[in-house]
Amino acid sequence: MWTLFTKALNRSKSSAVVTVINSSANFCITAVLGYLIFSEPLALQWWFGASLIITGSVLVGSDESSSKKKIE
Domain EamA spans what residues (predicted)? Predict the structure, then answer.
């Protein structure tokens, strides 16, 4: 994960975009693998919380990228 994250940071213009994608992928992959490998229950409350975190990350990332466009 860290190798891919570092490579993505080097290739991307915005670290916020990379962080949002990394966080979203981490939540989803962790949930699916936990369900498949360990038969962990995934309650609706967990999905709701994860979606709130991902939505917040997207909003922060989009705010940072739009403020950079205004400066340029």
Answer: 2-60
